[in-house]
Amino acid sequence: MDPVVVLAADEAFAMPLAVTVRSALENLAEGRKLQIYVLDGGIQESTKQRVERSWPAGRFVLNWLSVDEQLFAKLPVWGHVSQVAYYRLLLPKLLPEHLSRVIFLDCDLLVCGDLSELWQCDQRGFLCLAVQDCAAPYIDAMLAIENAENCCPHLGSTMPIENYQELGLNPLMPYFNSGVMVVDVDGWRRESLSQQLLDCLEENRSYIRWWDQYALNVVLADRWGMLDPRWNQGANVYNFSRWDRSYYDRETYLQVLEHPFIIHFTTKFKPWKITCIHPRRKQFFKVLDRTEWSGWRPPKFDSAHSMLEFLKTQQRRLRYASRRFLSSWSR
């Protein structure tokens, strides 16, 4: 069976959607197709046609699924994230009944590996397979990581679920990123998981961090399985200047850093923004130039705010280069 892939996007993420899927199709095994379902958050019809023309004909079957935004109207959003981030929580309700298992992908990815290999991963009885979040690898990293003193200053969060004690969660449990998941949709249906996830968000509203991930890591605690970390290389891996300043062992660190199966442009600094300093940003535009958005590049300064953001970017770029330089001398 060909891989079944689900993504969620609105008009603002139509271009990155085109790039993500284009990269997946270009690295898919010969003779395979992708069965693609896009949870549509209001993409214009002309943009949908542009997206579809961005992908090689004959390698995919595309289904657009409209989503009622009112289902998510009360859920909190801020920063660069919209309600679309929550669509994945209702996969059993939004997808056709005959789909029992899917790969869910965010739309800020570059797929470098063959998704048919991810599709063939053994579910092992878990409701979800995912990758430990390299920006927040544990429920309480200060307790879970042996070299916490060296590693924790480089994390996005040492405690992504602040009220974990009240919820009875083990602080040593890994915490996963929801941008790449292999989902047992039938299992979610049996467990009425979507309602559990929505209830979790409602009951813990004041503690929500990273939107859908909060609920997924609370409700799926002990019920998700780990994927090879190369299937979701988060941007935070580049904050670790050396393997011994990360929570990885040396071999895993080098594999994730140098040979990712999927590059995930986590954080608000997306490659299509002038503020992005991600080391693999150029790869994004190489794929972009094979889509209907070929030649597009972000405008540098369209406002005083964008100028300020650009200056902040240069400051971050200098800090990043300094860390790398100093670490090379200390080896």
TrEMBL record:
Superkingdom of origin organism: Bacteria
InterPro entries registered for this protein in UniProt: Glyco_trans_8, Glycosyltrans_8_dom-fam, Nucleotide-diphossugar_trans
SUPFAM superfamilies for the chain: Nucleotide-diphospho-sugar transferases
Keyword terms, alphabetized: Glycosyltransferase, Metal-binding, Transferase
Pfam families: Glyco_transf_8
An example molecular function term from Gene Ontology annotations: metal ion binding
CDD domains: GT8_A4GalT_like
Descriptive protein name: General stress protein A
Organism the protein comes from: Aeoliella mucimassa
Gene: gspA
